[in-house]
Please model this.
Amino acid sequence: GGVTLGKYIFICQDYTDKEIVIKHECGHVKQSKILGPLYLIVIGLPSIIWAMTHKYIAPYNSYYDFYTEKWANKLMGIC
Model:
């Protein structure tokens, strides 16, 4: 639904629940501020790999079960 690079958020216009996606991506912005240059290694790359593979390696898990996504949601108060 979205991608975050530093303070910039890119969201697919066709996404139906944009408000939640924006809030989630704001969680990634907070992660970026906390981690600084380590963000891409600790969050960015694992998140991209998870997005591309989670349906194959963990088809019964939610996308948001992965640590990068769970932490972003927690930072924004999304349950």
About this structure: The chain has a mean pLDDT of 91.
